[in-house]
């Protein structure tokens, strides 16, 4: 029993070690970009999304920020919601629109690994992932277009002069503390709950069910091997897929299908890391809802891609 408790606290500390320092650094940098007016230089990107989706103009600033730091974008949305600038439906839609910027933002960490293991086809696979994120974003833009009332937008007339002085850094530091402390509190609680569920075997049980289901699919043994490796070690899955491709055991479409299947299988284990993030920023109820909606829609889109590839084989 004591060993279990120690393990739960150890896992919690591991979550916090990998999440809190980067969160604080990201918050501070993002606040400098906002307070220094740097983000408004590319404000037009988010404005396009908000106009199509009938979202308030403030959401455009958050969506623009998501291309640089998705966490800060989500924090901004929560702040707008708490101040009454946006309602809950607008909060949900704006957050779910971030799927495309979020995956695009990972190019610097994911693309080099894919190129190293799969070469040109790694680039193609990354484009497929970006396309899935883009489709997810478009789905929620359409949801906003249909469910939100049309609104008139002012002509874009924002101050774009960059300011970098001690007042900007002071405000950035002050806002980092303002936003960071309650988020860190919620992340600690969510991390502890997640660690408890891990030790209870909850995620392992769900993962095992999904793996057993995968073995019943009409895919080759090699494809299933790549797919079930991905939730354990995604780099290992890419290396394995690259080896099968180079040896001619799997063709290009089969590699894409196996990796996409692996991304579906990874959805449940990924909740272990997503839960503290979403619940820390949005609160437990809204964080859980947004996380599950985003995960479910992404999985459904990925399954459609798998079906399309299977029909092409």
TrEMBL record:
Keywords: Membrane, Transmembrane, Transmembrane helix. The chain crosses the membrane at residues 15-34, 113-143, 187-206, 255-275, 287-312. The keyword Electron transport does not apply. The keyword Nucleotide-binding does not apply. PANTHER family: GATE DOMAIN-CONTAINING PROTEIN, NUCLEOSIDE TRANSPORTER_FEOB GTPASE GATE DOMAIN-CONTAINING PROTEIN. This is Nucleoside recognition domain protein. It comes from Methanocaldococcus fervens (strain DSM 4213 / JCM 15782 / AG86).
């Amino acid at each position: 029993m004591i060993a279990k408790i120690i393990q739960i606290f150890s896992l919690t500390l591991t979550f916090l070690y990998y999440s809190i320092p980067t969160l604080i650094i990201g918050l501070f940098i993002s606040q400098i970009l906002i307070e220094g007016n740097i983000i408004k230089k590319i404000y037009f990107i988010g404005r396009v999304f908000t106009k199509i989706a009938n979202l308030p103009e403030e959401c455009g600033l958050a969506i623009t920020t998501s291309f640089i730091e998705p966490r800060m974008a989500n924090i901004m949305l929560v702040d707008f919601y708490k101040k009454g600038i946006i309602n809950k439906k607008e909060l949900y839609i704006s957050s779910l629109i971030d799927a495309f910027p979020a995956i695009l933002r990972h190019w610097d960490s994911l693309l080099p690994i894919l190129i190293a293991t799969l070469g040109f086809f790694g680039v193609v696979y990354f484009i497929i992932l970006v396309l899935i994120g883009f489709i997810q974003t478009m789905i929620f833009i359409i949801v906003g277009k249909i469910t939100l009332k049309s609104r008139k937008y002012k002509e874009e007339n924002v101050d774009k002069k960059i300011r970098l002085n001690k007042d900007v850094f002071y405000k950035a530091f002050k806002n980092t503390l303002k936003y960071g402390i309650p988020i860190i509190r919620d992340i600690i609680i969510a991390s502890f709950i997640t660690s408890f569920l891990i030790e209870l075997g909850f995620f392992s049980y769900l993962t095992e069910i999904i793996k057993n289901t995968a073995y019943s699919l009409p895919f080759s043994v090699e494809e299933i091997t790549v797919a079930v490796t991905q939730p354990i070690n995604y780099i290992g899955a890419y290396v394995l897929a690259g080896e099968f491709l180079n040896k001619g055991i799997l063709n290009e479409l089969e590699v894409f299908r196996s990796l996409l299947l692996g991304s579906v299988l990874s959805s449940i284990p990924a909740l272990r890391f997503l839960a503290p993030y979403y619940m820390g920023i949005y609160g437990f109820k809204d964080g859980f809802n947004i996380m599950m909606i985003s995960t479910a829609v992404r999985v459904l889109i990925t399954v459609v891609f798998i079906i399309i590839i299977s029909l092409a084989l």
